[in-house]
User: Fold these one by one.
Assistant:
Number 1:
Amino acid sequence: MRRTLILPAAVVVLASALAAGYVVSRHDRAPKPTAVDEVRAALAARYYRSLPAGVLRLGSVHAMLSALRDPYTAYLTPLSYRLVEHETAANYSGIGVEVLPTERGLVVVGVEHGPAARAGVRRGDVIVDIGGRSVVGLDAAAALDRVANAPGGRISLAVRRLGAVVHLDVRRGLVSAQAARGRLVRYGGRLWGVIRLTNFRTGVAKLVRHEVRALTRGHAAGLVLDLRGDPGGLLSEAVAVSSVFLDGGPVVSLSGAHFVHEEFHATRGHVTKLPLVVLVDRYTASAAEIVAAALEERGRALVVGERTFGKGVVQAVDPLANGAALVVTVASYYTPDGESISRVGVIPELHAVDDPATPQDEALLAALHALARPAS
């Protein structure tokens, strides 16, 4: 029996796994076809839009996937697939860098506490080389494979930063990936709660609920949900996080050429009615964009920051008979108003950007100012 879990984020944790963004499927045992046959069948049966002419007649997995020109549809080697299966762990062995594929290379959207941070990798860096080999134009799964197979656990990275190329040496190690942290800050003579959400791994909604209740007990007058640099994660967690602030109603819907249209709603019994601002930036992606768009369109929150990444498609991770797996795009997702954010992103109602050259966080200050100003 096939068991399906929908996980709509798409990034790579260059450490132990691909970050979520996928529908994970498992199949009954059957005679082992070739990987080419399995990939061809999966694309024909599941790809989210019409396939380019001739793709299915190509004779190799690489040729078929290259012809799609889809950075999110990729082949996972057996080792990489085993790592993906552990991607929702709070602690794992890796280097702790989350990236999104772009035409320039792999842009770093998040750096966890771990080896990469100690080596000097920064959010906003663009990785152009791993282990002496270019990753420009490489899909994220292939980049993960290079990190996973690095001899001796040492990985040399070349990153483009402010127009210059910086060379860094990283050794895999233990990564701590705490997904949600809350704190009280004082602004305008009042206390406000700030919840920093770095990803949508398993259990993050429970952590958010806990933080909201703690901040409420601490007499927070309103909340900032900080999704900057959050590449997304599990769809179920995105819906559950939305449910902390919404009392039922639509959150997101999925649809594709071979995917039955499905709508997801927040549960009743929300945790808080406190005023809410959602803080985003250009690296806020996928499941994080789902939450931001739902809270904005439902009139529950003001969105502050930069236009988000615009990753509005869902992948499936299908195991193959040889122990590898195929990551295939199976659906697009839509906001409660029926809008696609693909290549568009969520556009904030109030534009604000942090200046890394200053000690203060200008974007957070803009969010707090929006909370503190009297309602018009």
Number 2:
Amino acid sequence: MTTGLLLALALLALAMGAALFGASLLQRARQEQQHDQVIDQALSRLLHAPKGEASENVRRTPWRLLMDTLESLGRHFEDGRLGKALLAPEDRLLLDQANRNTRSGRAIFLGLRLALALLLPALVALWLRPTGVRALLELFAALAAGVLLPKFALNAWATRLRKRVEDELPLLIDLLRLLQGIGFSMDQSLQTIAERFYTVLPVLGREIRDANAAYIRGRPRDQSLRRLAESFDNEDLKSLVLIILQVHQHGGAVQEPLRQFAERLREQRKMGMKEKTGKLSVKMTIVMMLTLLPALMLVLAGPAVVSLIGTMAKLKGH
């Protein structure tokens, strides 16, 4: 009884501490929001810019307030040991693949993990009210879930983007080969793809547009394309970036290498589809054995079994 009472008091103190901490962060975020609103109002009055009211309305939304609170929480712990532990290199790579590896994106991700790590155990303690060893296990499970759920969601998002990059890569190669064939330079081809084909290449088109913007601001072409080559962990994309850099530096005809490259990619995709088809056939065989075979045996052997039962009944009657 005493142990349960102490555990309840400890959980209550933890919940109160989390509530006070969240309230202080919320108050700080509101103060920063008020300061930003005052500055925006002053600027809008001076410049007569109609966009000031729109930005002010955006800041007043609950979603914006939540993001500001998470960002403030993440920045508070980002430079400490806890922030370094919860922002491992693999987490930064996932953020980079999702195009969120900025100071704000890292802070929001870290703040979300910390907030869920505090919120889920408090909810478990208030809702389930566990006692004894079960309380420790459930609270530890809630803490682990709060820390890991944002990473799982980010990993799923990054996986989906990598799959889209694999699907868009053959079309990107064909567009480059087409534009090179009509006399465009490599820079003109990349600029045209980023400006006119972003609807059919949403992921790679965005990355090429960012690379072009970095190149215009003064970065070398190899540095501007480094994110495109390294972020998605795709060897074919790395090879394409190397071809682009070689053509950019030395020039030369690139239609034939791009055609061979596209054909090799299509052959690889065909082999992958054949492999998936073979595995699917094996899986369907197991499914048919477990579902179709019992029904087939029942249909074929059912009348014979019924007839045999009737015959045996007649023999017993005689």
Number 3:
Amino acid sequence: MIGPMKQDNPPNSAKQQTPQGNTALKVDNLSVVFDVKGKPVTILSDITFSVERGETLGIIGESGCGKSMTALALMRMIPSPPGRIAGGEVNLNSENLLEVTKKRMSAVRGKEISMIFQEPMTSLNPVYTVGNQLVETIRRHKTVSATEAQEEAVELLRIVQIPAPEKRIKEYPHQLSGGMRQRIMIAMALVCNPKVLIADEPTTALDVTVQAQIFDLLKDIQQKNGTSIILITHDFGAVSEMADRVLVMYAGFKIEEGTLDEIRNHAAHPYTQGLLRSMPELSTDHDAFRTPLPEIPGSVPDLINRQPGCPFGPRCPSATAKCHEMPPMVDLGANRSVMCWLAVEEGAA
């Protein structure tokens, strides 16, 4: 956890100056199905969103809600079998990545759209030096000599602020700290200066100080290159630190979307409200630290045996008989929507 949420943004903060009308990535009705014991199970259901150039979109939700699966689907890295992308479009530079050949996708992956994976120790090869792995990535996408690739690898380590890069490039992953390994992963993702960078829980298991350094590094890279970032996390504190807009997921559905301020100050879905209530806040009242944080009762539903109606219905404190039917996605404005019968009723009223 990055820490308590910030309550206010300055009126002219960078978060409110994101360039609009310049879409870097557009996702429409993305669906993913896995075959489990011969039965098709829907893991993602009609996920739709877009990311502007230079914008950070935070995707948040509990473990198992489909955040990382969304990232893998965007990269066309769903394990098949048993999984498959069942429908939708992922448009990058007016090209639907779900329709291109495997050879074309291999060229796009890492060059146009790249990903920082959640756990560096499972993504970095322990038997090769970080230099070997960086050089391999560089030469895969660029026509350069081994010497030129080595020089570029050193420069990448310098860009991600790793001290003594000439020395570190000769070391193995286990010789580096967790923060350094995460920076190596960022360096590998930046080899070709991608237009879209997916950061899947980029600060997992890092201490608060290193988390802040990683976020500062990502924001610096974004400012210099105009990179669009999709930040995947379960931590509203991280979203508050990084995101311009927020997409909330639950049980494979997008249930709410809006700007950071709209979600933080005017959450419309009961699940989002529950997430916000469970976040600690800074307080000078010592008794506040002794009061347990409210939690959302129950657990994420079993996707294999889905119940009819709203996926959050069995845990929702505001559920009614109407919630036994699947709610529609209600449009509340530009890039602002919520999937809840309460919003339908309020609109009718």
